[in-house]
Every structure is written in structure tokens, then in C-alpha cells.
């Protein structure tokens, strides 16, 4: 499989089939992902791979607490996440793409809420991978970079094996629920979650490919004119 088939042709999957994913396949994907770059080879990451009844309990607890108005309790926070300018524009644009694909009207508050709750249910995927890092490294500027790199590598490895994935924060916004049912020890900090499973080709939002900046917008080249 060519690089561009794995990277450029892929997208976040928000609809999965209920088919189980073999543990052996997930172990293979993790082994590939953990070849990701790591500052000074610290490898700060840990993976809590959850399926079945424990994952159902996380889904239920996340949903119940959010509907009850319990404040979010994400553990890894670096500051405000209120986007402005072009960053906010891109956020709105991809939401329009997704709602358009799903046929969710702007005024349909019930369907919009259901869409948000899908995230708290880990998009009903059969597997959830919780990415944590060792608390002793809290405050390190390299640790978030390393965890981001291994998460991207995990998604690409999953795609190369026919699975779909979506990196998300909704599934960990109620961290006490996640800690309880995933058995995450206190010496680890919850950073991200990755919904993982076989893509449902009939799910409309799976056809959405987010628009990206051009290379000309994103890159500055210096010295090439000489």
C-alpha cells in the first residue's frame, strides 16, 4: 500500500460496524504505532484498550453525567480552547460538512444533541483506546508531542489494516467514569481517546473529507531561490 493511500486518502470515521476487533490485530497495530518518534526515547505513552461491557459502562456513565449537566473534567488541559479567526472558521466548516452529510438541520436541536452524544459514546465503536502518559512527566513540553505522534501513528497503522479510527476528547471529558471502568492507575494522566473499529460504509458522515490548507498557505520556504 502506498503512503498516499494510507495518509491522504483517509479520514476520520464516525460510524462503525458492531463487528468485534481481534485483540491480536490491536496488538499488531500498537506495535507499529510505538515506533513513532519519542523525545530522547522517553516513550511516555500508555494504552488502555477497552471493549465489551466495560466500554458500555463508560458510554452510559459519560452520557448520564453529560445529560445531568455534570461539568467536564478532562485531565490534560493546556489553556482555553475557544477558537477564533480562521481556526474557528475551519471548525464551523467541518461541522457544516458533517451535519449536511447526516441531514441534520440547523434548527434540529434534538438531532444535534444526539450527534454530540455520539462522541461521548465513543461513536458506538467496538473498541476504545485511552491514551495516557506517566504523571511524573506532567508539565513536560515533549510529552504531549510524543503522545500526539503515537496517536497519529496508531490511526495510520489501523487504516493500513482496514480499520477506521477517530481521535477524540468527548469520550474522556468525564474522567472519573473512564478511570473507574478502564482501571487507570493514579500515576497516569488521561490525555486522549481513539475510537476504533471496522468502518460502516453506509454511514453518511464517513464520506466527509475535511478541507485542508494548501501547502502554499501552510509552508514558508527559505533559501530555495538561491
Automatic annotation (TrEMBL):
Gene3D superfamilies: NADH Oxidase. InterPro entries: Nitroreductase (IPR029479), Nitroreductase-like (IPR000415). Keywords: Oxidoreductase. The keyword Isomerase does not apply. It holds the Pfam family Nitroreductase. One of its GO terms (molecular function) is oxidoreductase activity. Residues 7-198 form the Nitroreductase domain. CDD domains: PnbA_NfnB-like (cd02136). Belongs to the nitroreductase family. This is Nitroreductase. It comes from Gordonia lacunae. The lineage of its organism: Bacteria, Bacillati, Actinomycetota, Actinomycetes, Mycobacteriales.
